[in-house]
Amino acid sequence: MRNLIQGIHQFQKQDFRELRDLFQELVHGQSPETLFITCSDSRIDPNRLTHSLPGDLFILRNAGNIVPPHGTTATGEAATIEFAVTGLGVKDIIICGHSHCGAIKALLDPQIISHMPAMQGWLAHCEATRQIIRENYHDLPTDELMMAAIQENVLVQIEHLQTLPAVAARRARGAIHLHAWVYQFETGDVLAYDPSQQQFLPLRRLERAATEPSEIRGQPI
Fold first, then answer.
1. Please, are residues 104 and 130 in contact by the beta-carbon 8 Å criterion?
2. How many CA atoms are closer than 13 Å to the CA of 24, on its beta-carbon side?
3. Of all helices (H) and strands (E), which one includes residue 57?
4. CA torsion sign, 197 to 90 to 164 to 171?
5. Angle in degrees, CA 212, 26, 93, rounded to 5
6. Residue 183 and residue 96: Cα distance in Å, rounded?
7. pLDDT on residue 213
8. Are 182 and 96 within 8 A, CB to CB?
9. DSSP string computed for 121-145
10. DSSP 177-210
């Protein structure tokens, strides 16, 4: 706590003063263009990663960057996404997984969370990921298997995202675009899914694809 309190003092003395005008503008409301869905993992800082300012990103975080599909019992995720899409009118939604994800590690080795019933229930929303890995990647070495699961889970959650009514309605008229990313925090690289090649590639090679509509698993986004 001492470090956090010292950080607040530093923020007030330096950062807040430098951005005072911006914070005064934000008093009147927010108008972010992007909803950024990512993991709760402490090693990810969406604003630092994207070099964005307060007010630029509407952020949703949970263990495993999971989006429960429509029809699931009402969740905070569904409410947050609906507010971002319908209330704020975001134009882009990014689901960003990350390397060495503890949730995905537990998905592959359920024994890790055998004493965490709530977490076991939560990861049921990743069951499709588990099955995809079991049937298509079972012969990969451990590290490669982990990365495959992280990437496939992002795509599974993108599919869940498209079942939400608010998102489906905007997509029907091309008013919103979806993006699948994976952040490798140990290298700083960000991979983005390229539908034309059906694989994740460095974002720097896909800057055009990252800002234009494309397809994920045959679904226009």
1. no
2. 5
3. strand 57-62
4. negative
5. 25
6. 7
7. 45
8. yes
9. HHGGGGHHHHHHHHHHSTTS-HHHH
10. EEEEEEEETTTTEEEEEETTTTEEEEGGG-HHHH
Residues in the chain: 221
> CA–CA separation, 104 vs 117, rounded Å?
16
Q: List, in sequence order, every residue forming a beta bridge with 202; answer none if it has no partner.
A: 191
The pair of three-digit structure tokens given for residue 70, joined into one six-digit string? 């429509």
- Give the pLDDT confidence of 166-198 residue by residue, as tens digits: 999 999 999 999 999 999 999 999 999 998 889
Residue 109 is encoded by which pair of tokens?
């080795």
Q: How many C-beta atoms surround the C-beta of residue 141 within 10 A?
A: 7
**Helix or strand run (H / E) with residue 91:** none
Bridge partners (DSSP) listed for residue 199: 194
199-202: strand order across its sheet: 57-62, 34-39, 92-98, 177-184, 189-194, 199-202
Label residue 179 exposed, middle or buried (CB < 10 Å: 0-12, 13-18, 19+).
Answer: buried
Residue-level pLDDT at 216: 55
DSSP character at residue 212? S
Rounded Cα distance between 214 and 132, Å, is: 23
pTM surpassing 0.85?
yes
Which of 50-53's residues contact partners 24+ apart within 8 Å by CB, and which partners?
53/19, 53/22
Average the pLDDT over 59-86 and give the result. 95
Is residue 191 a contact partner of residue 200, using CB atoms and an 8 Å limit? Answer: yes
